[in-house]
Design brief:
It is a single chain. The protein is mostly helical. The protein folds into two domains: 8-58, no CATH class; 62-168, AhpD-like. Helix content is 58%, strand content 0%. The chain contains nine helices and no strands. The protein has helices spanning 13-18, 34-40, 44-60, 65-78, 82-91, 99-107, 113-128, 133-140, 145-168. Helix 7 packs across helix 9 (145-168). InterPro entries: AhpD-like, CMD-like. It holds the Pfam family CMD. Residues 44-123 form the Carboxymuconolactone decarboxylase-like domain. It comes from Nocardia wallacei. GO terms for molecular function: peroxiredoxin activity.
């Protein structure tokens, strides 16, 4: 682990304040914050600035939650980001994704044409940093302009998190398993 969680004895008021955009007061501590947030708070100013955007992407975006989770899981899988994979696999059923959908995300193939378009969008954005006209138009059959913008920023956000978490060595709580493996501990999702 290159950047370990901040030790409990180093947490202070500034550290806790950095988590204000995401976590309730009772979770702004070394035990409640989870491994990702406990690592990010090593740099409180960056964490606070980033979380304002991250909260929009996860909780306030115009993107339908099912579409968001398809895109997030695809990025978590193709970037081998174990922390994000485990966090969002647990969240996925609440947003309407089945075990078959999750397996399809891993394979890059889903039977529903629109769901497949969402995976294609995530793959294109990761590989080419842009969407093809075909995928942009296909997304437009169900998503308005703002929703498509939110999809692009969602994919970009989770690519950024994958880069950070994979580089820092952030793992799911109590886990040393690769992305794509089920995990039972509930963590704060980022």
């Amino acid at each position: 682990m290159r950047v370990p969680p901040l030790p409990a004895e180093q947490w202070d008021d500034r550290t806790r304040a950095a988590l204000r955009p995401l976590l309730p007061r009772e979770r702004r501590n070394p035990e409640g914050a989870g491994p990702a947030m406990s690592t990010l708070v090593r740099y409180p100013e960056l964490t606070e600035a980033y979380l304002k955007f991250g909260v929009h992407v996860l909780f306030r975006s115009s993107l339908p939650p099912r579409v968001r989770e398809l895109a997030v899981l695809r990025i978590a899988h193709v970037t081998a980001c174990a922390y994000e994979w485990h966090s969002h696999v647990e969240m996925a059923p609440q947003e309407g994704l089945s075990a078959e959908d999750i397996a399809g995300v891993q394979q890059g193939r889903l039977p529903d044409p629109f769901d497949q378009t969402v995976l294609d969008a995530a793959d294109e954005l990761r590989e080419h940093a842009r969407l093809s006209d075909r995928v942009w138009a296909a997304l437009g059959e169900r998503l308005d302009e703002r929703e498509r913008m939110d999809l692009i920023f969602t994919v970009g956000n989770y690519i950024l998190l994958a880069m950070a978490f994979n580089t820092f060595g952030v793992e799911p709580k109590g886990s040393h398993v690769p992305a794509g493996t089920a995990h039972n501990d509930r963590e704060q999702v980022v």
